[in-house]
Amino acid sequence: MEKSKGMLTLVGTPIGNAGDLSQRGLQALLDADVIACEDTRRSLPFLLGRGVKKPLVSYHKHNEKSGAEHLLSLLEQGKNVALVTDAGMPAISDPGAEVVRLARSAGIKVTCAPGPTALTTAAALAGLTGAFCFLGFLPQKAKERSLLLSKFAPLPAALIFYVSPHDLKKDLDFLYLALGKRKITLVREMTKLFEEVIEGELGETDGIEPRGEYVLIVRAGEEQESAEDPRELLKSLLEGGTDRKSAIKQVAARCKLPRDTVYKMALEHEGEE
């Protein structure tokens, strides 16, 4: 007789306030045969404090593929696996997507005991309405960053990013160069004692100190005539490492110009070098 397969449960854990673990989430942890953790050292005290004493396995971004295959083998042996990250929901800018994909492909049930996420908590605190796009952490490479923004900047939607403290100034400067003077909201320490919501504009953020991780919400651009000099903007983007195609797309969107017009500007700029 074929042994029945286990079930994978994605369990949302608190992003700051330990009281935010749901009853369903706790029960899923208590019912699991194995708990996969982003960092077992961080999860162990949290679990023990709630009476959860189960075998732990590591599952993080550095072993996501091999770790997912290991978890799949446990599931196929009939083990029920709960997946947690250090904080928030698995697979939301954290490991989880690969094991979900493998489990579903193998016919294994995947369910969720949802919990708080920094993304939706920040959106609520910011009073965000309408459409938004979540882009996670900006890529480190200039070309990849520029390509990403060239795709999403023209959309009539807010853009939401996660920002690590050591990247805060760099990311804000880059976004100002790429998007212009847009309204922003920065949120940190969510659900904690020193929760902070900062509102401002790109280009006017020099006084913001890099204290912990932030969620950055950049509001959609307003439809208005641009006062920016498209040639200077194009020059800044190109000299800052943005490739020509992405720079043309960004300048055309920000300055409300046809792309062929900006293309000619790019050729002129290259001819001057």
Automatic annotation (TrEMBL):
<keyword id="KW-0949">S-adenosyl-L-methionine</keyword>
<dbReference type="GO" id="GO:0005737">
    <property type="term" value="C:cytoplasm"/>
</dbReference>
<keyword id="KW-0698">rRNA processing</keyword>
<keyword id="KW-0963">Cytoplasm</keyword>
<dbReference type="Pfam" id="PF00590">
    <property type="entry name" value="TP_methylase"/>
</dbReference>
<comment type="similarity">
    <text>Belongs to the methyltransferase superfamily. RsmI family.</text>
</comment>
<keyword id="KW-0808">Transferase</keyword>
<keyword id="KW-0489">Methyltransferase</keyword>
<comment type="function">
    <text>Catalyzes the 2'-O-methylation of the ribose of cytidine 1402 (C1402) in 16S rRNA.</text>
</comment>
<dbReference type="InterPro" id="IPR008189">
    <property type="entry name" value="rRNA_ssu_MeTfrase_I"/>
</dbReference>
<dbReference type="InterPro" id="IPR014777">
    <property type="entry name" value="4pyrrole_Mease_sub1"/>
</dbReference>
<dbReference type="InterPro" id="IPR035996">
    <property type="entry name" value="4pyrrol_Methylase_sf"/>
</dbReference>
<dbReference type="InterPro" id="IPR014776">
    <property type="entry name" value="4pyrrole_Mease_sub2"/>
</dbReference>
<feature type="domain" description="Tetrapyrrole methylase">
    <location>
        <begin position="7"/>
        <end position="204"/>
    </location>
</feature>
<dbReference type="GO" id="GO:0070677">
    <property type="term" value="F:rRNA (cytosine-2'-O-)-methyltransferase activity"/>
</dbReference>
<dbReference type="InterPro" id="IPR000878">
    <property type="entry name" value="4pyrrol_Mease"/>
</dbReference>
<protein>
    <recommendedName>
        <fullName>Ribosomal RNA small subunit methyltransferase I</fullName>
        <ecNumber>2.1.1.198</ecNumber>
    </recommendedName>
</protein>
